[in-house]
Amino acid sequence: MTMQGFVYIAVFFLVLLALTKPLGIFMAQVFEGRRTFLHPILRPLETLVYKFCGIRETSEQRWTQYSGSMIAFSLVSFLFVYAIQRLQGLLPLNPMHFSTSQAPGYATPLTPDLAFNTAVSFMTNTNWQAYGGEQTLSYLVQMAALTVQNFVSAAAGIAVVIALIRGFARKETNTIGNFWVDTTRATVYVLLPLSLLLALFLCFRGVPQTFKSYRTATTLEGATQNIAVGPVAGQEAIKMLGTNGGGFFNANSAHPYENPTPLTNFVEILTILAISSALTYTFGRMVEDTRQGWALFAAMAVLFFAGVFICYPSEGGGNPNLARLGVETKATDTQPGGNMEGKEVRFGIASSTLWATATTDASNGSVNSMHDSYTPLGGFIPLFNLQTDEVIFGGVGAGLYGMLLYAIVGVFIAGLMVGRTPEYLGKKIEQKEVKMAMVAIIATAFSILVFAAISAVIPFAKNGYWNPPGPAIANFGNPGAHGFSELLYTFSSASENNGSAFNGINVNTPWYNLMTGLAMLIGRFGFILPTLAIAGSLVAKKKVPTTSGTLPTHGALFVGLLVGVVVVIGALTFFPALSLGPLVEHFFMREGKLLSSLIIHAVWS
Amino acid sequence: MRKQLSQAFRFTLLMTVLTGLIYPGLVTGLCQLLFPRTANGSLLKINGQVVGSTLLGQNFSSPEYFHPRPSAAGNDGYDATASGGSNFGPTNQKLIDRVKADVAKFRMENPDYQGPIPADMVTTSASGLDPDISLASAFAQAPRVAQARRTTVDRVNQLIQAQARGRRWGFLGEPRVNVLQLNVALNQSFPMAPKKQS
User: Fold this and answer.
1) How far does A538 lie from chain B, in Å, by closest CA?
2) To the nearest whole angstrom, how far is the Cα of B10 from the nearest Cα of chain A?
């Protein structure tokens, strides 16, 4: 660990804090339908969307209609993305002639199961990549299928949290807004202008943006290097802002063409959390008590720092197995030290671990270092962040509605302790809200644990259709406990709609493509539908006056309670699984024991 | 539900045109106009020939050039159409075996260097295309390069210092040097006999 590393993390947090209020105010204005400074330019575009789609801007929806629109929209999105992928061989903007079946020698064929997985992945804002972008997808697929979903699936996530906020803000009514209007506004006023600015900045600093085919270079030593390029900058921008994370290239934001310099790296980490952080202020504004928003921000910040300051020292300490071979693992003035396997020199340890923490605090899932090569405790943080539902600032919209569900559970537990009906923001929290919050939290936990458990034991014939490598554990890229971590991370990432990976595992087989696809669907709709149900239930309630018996939800006590609830629920649910993966590996590493067997149970014999 | 689906269809269609065609088209137009060099991949041309991209690492193995980090991109490393890391975990026997071999190779190639191996020099990067090495890794190779180029270690070290990049604003990034640019500078300052140059 270095002084510069600490400064980096501190400056990062201060800039994030500084952005929260102005961006939060702006979004509150947008979603309350008030005029902003962008309206003179973008209002015509907004009305064009309403006209073309037959949307009445002033009409409101009940929670059931809101959910219906969301589901219809997701279904159509899925079909669009699937169709564009499967037709990529026939469509234009495919200079490398990628196909769906007989791909060129260097490419991965875009099979039906892979296309299904990718379509679900982008529609659900997961952006899990079972493919390597530069070897699988045409420019048209990257743009017209994936970039589009980067915008609209993120916008839909923001819409859902705005609907939930209205559930708290409004009283004794039955509508929570209009899904189409909210999604349109999130796209037109928030995501599009920010993406355009960011794309230009990224290209200015080195990210390519071209429709030309891949380049060929003759190196100084006379060898040939083929160089994949493409329309990267535009996609990179929304990939970060929309907490999407599906990279143009296989190496994601570690690739110098996605993230060329330390400055772009800083800006990209910031954009992972900026909108989500600002939404806490938007929330405070809309419920007319900004202290409530800051309390959520504070709880998120506590969890954020806890994660960073476990991950950073673990990676900075390096791998003792390499130290024994004469490799420097302490940072010096001229080299980064630490665990540099799977990390880039220009980023070093501090900003790699900050990114790993932030990308899993949120449902972003982009990476600038390879999580699979992290030390066990360094990799434990991203994994645990996923499993606690990514509520530390979180995905755009998704993080805040996740945290609000935890807040509901938190006040419920506090209410049990003192024997009072719990309240949050003047709304009585009753059976229905608590049930729905628990359904959401259990649905994702169920999906993680059950899919991982099945994959850990299910046998397949070698070279069969479902999983050509053989049994599902034959796909692991690492032996023993670390292989199990890969599996657990896979389903945690899919179920929580994150998209990052312990990448050594080969997930592009029909079995994994279908199972992770299902996990993503459970994670998206198993969380959003209960959330909207809560919004519908809350919006009908009247506001009860604050009394001396009301638990204040803007103070340190509540922040502590919320942090406790998140950590305890996560730990209780996942401790057994985590102890089989990163925890046991940690002790192995400290003892200098190496793993070489491919099969888990052999480790224990 | 039919109305919902029809709205969803029109909405998705419009957004595909707006964010999937117009937006990337606009970004491409502006970037090509404003930043043509970076928009096309920051390609480095020498005598009109593309020798690589200043942003991407490439392989160097002869003694007169600085060597990059090991790479897991593609089958032979530094494949710029197949980016990626090794994804080896810290307790994986394969990782330790590979590092052991790379340490031995580095020691053999750089017999004048006695210190500990810099952390980046025997580990693969996340992208497999890391264009940089740490300053320590460059200094450790300087004696070998100086010998191959029939110059002094001091002069090679000066060249490294001239090419080195520090931390922007004191905290952004790590001290490093771009291998391709350093090697191009080497060719300019200490040219090899012509037969080595193609």
Assistant:
1) 24
2) 5
In this structure, of A137-151, A413-427, B120-134, the range with the lowest mean pLDDT score is A413-427
pLDDT, position A102:
64
Q: Which of A143, A208, A332 sits opposite B41 (nearest CB)?
A: A208
Euclidean distance between CA atoms B124 and B138, whole angstroms: 16
Q: What is the identity of the amino acid at A127?
A: N
For the record, the structure tokens of A4 come out as 């510069």
Q: What is the Cα A360 distance to its own chain's centre?
A: 6
Q: Name the pairing type of β-strands A427-428 and B43-46.
A: unpaired
Contact B175 A333 (CB under 8 A): yes
Measured distance CA(B137)–CA(B164) in Å, rounded: 12
> Do residues A598 and A469 touch, judged by C-beta distance below 8 A?
no
Q: Which residues contact B8 (CB under 8 A, 6 or more apart)?
A: A69, A72, A73, A75, A76, A77
A589 chain-B contacts, CB cut-off 8 A: 90-91
Instruction: Give me the residues paired with residue A209 across strands.
Output: A231
pLDDT at B194: 62
Q: What φ, ψ does residue A142 adopt, rounded to 5°?
A: -55, -40
Residues B27, A187: C-beta atoms closer than 8 Å: no
The dihedral through the CA atoms of A326, A327, A329, A335 has a sign that is positive
Q: What is the pLDDT of residues A381-396, one digit of tens each?
A: 999 999 999 999 999 9
User: Whole-angstrom Cα distance, residue A233 to residue A208?
Assistant: 6
Residue A597 has pLDDT above 80, yes or no: no
Using the predicted structure, report yes or no on whether residue B11 has a pLDDT greater than 90. Answer: yes
Cα distances from A536 to residues A45, A58, A165, A474, in angstroms, run 30, 18, 11, 46
Q: For chain B, state the CA radius of gyration.
A: 22
Of A52, A481, A504, the CB nearest to B14: A52
Give the H/E segment covering residue B178: strand B176-178
Report whether A310 contacts A377 (CB < 8 A). Answer: yes
- To the nearest whole Å, the CA of B19 is away from the closest chain A CA by 5
Judge contact between A595 and A482, C-beta under 8 A: yes
B195 vs B188: CA distance, rounded Å: 15
Instruction: State which amino acid sits at residue B82.
Output: A
Facing residues of A327 across strands?
A: B117
Burial of A112 (0-12, 13-18, 19+ CB in 10 A): middle
Instruction: List pLDDT tens digits, range A423-434.
Output: 999 999 999 999
Nearest Cα of chain A lies from the Cα of B142 at a distance, in angstroms, of: 14
Counting beta carbons within 10 angstroms of the beta carbon of residue B13, is it exposed (0 to 12), middle (13 to 18) or buried (19 or more)?
A: middle
Measured CA to CA, the distance from residue A47 to residue A184 in angstroms comes to 10
pLDDT category at A97 given cuts 50, 70, 90 is confident
pLDDT per position as a tens digit, B14-39: 999 999 999 999 999 999 999 999 99
For range A284-300, the mean pLDDT: 96
B6 contacts in chain A (CB < 8 Å):
54
| A573 neighbors B71 (Cβ within 8 angstroms) | no
Q: How far is CA A365 from the centre of its chain?
A: 5
Residue in B43, B82, B174 nearest the CB of A348: B174
H/E element holding A534?
A: helix A510-539
What are phi and psi for residue A216, nearest 5 degrees? -125, 135
